Amino acid sequence: MTEIPLKGRVWVASDIHLGPDTPATAQAFHRFLDQACAQADALILCGDIFDVWVGDDYALDSPPDWLSASLDKFRQTAGALALWLGRGNRDFLIGKALADHVGAHVLPEPVILRTDAGRLLLAHGDEYCTADRAYQRFRRIVRSPLVQTAFLKLGLGLRRSIANRARQRSMQANRHKPAKVMDVDTDAVRDAFRQADVRLLVHGHTHRPAVHRLDIDGKPHTRIVLPDWDYDHGPVRGGWLQIDEQGAALHQASK
Ligand code: LP5
Ligand code: MN
What we know:
The chain is an alpha/beta fold.
């Protein structure tokens, strides 16, 4: 598994879900990026940065205004600190072209960060939702390089309509899934801890921010779940994890 050494103050955020209909979220997130530039040494965005991503060419060729604004902000951020862009279940098509365009790096997945607080495992989190068989089947298909190459050859219009169909189907399917199925699976989490040989796992995806303590093989372990961001619909949600020599501290947004 890839290990990234990171010195100093590391910030991690996930599931910002930027899109055309999230102006307030984008504004709050851009403020957060300014704060990161002033206070952090590295910023890692670990997936679902965008609500949907149909290929880097969409961003590079003629991005809409909302996307241009965020890309400018990413470029500014990457000029001030080390910026890593991770892929989630909505934006797994983020590639090196986008990262190069803004001066960032693509985050390998899963990845071990070697920080001042020790080694930790970082992932988007969807890979641990193994009780969701329908999702894992979908994931295997769309993560296949062959399928991705074929999809990226399609015109942008067709790609966007396929992505919309997938979103609709996903929302329909999620209405009937029990909450437990949509959360991470305990055994999958234990396996991940053992395989990576770490005591701390950080992930997003489930939108259930929390710090979970668990015992594995008689030793204490911690799983930190990052919040998703939404400043456009209902009560404000957002936040990030700060990792430094003091440990890992979850900061959650409040009104
Ligand atoms: O995203 P969210 O939170 O709603 O639900 C996720 C899981 N769903 C997904 C699907 C995404 O929302 C759609 C992503 C679009 C990506 C753009 C690229 C498009 C294709 C690229 C091909 C290379 O991730 C959801 C989980 C939930 O998290 C909790 O973990 O339950 O899983 C599902 O909903 C899976 C369903 O059970 C089955 C999905 C069927 C999709 C069928 C696609 C049909 C395409 C139509 C083509 C004409
Ligand atoms: Mn997700």
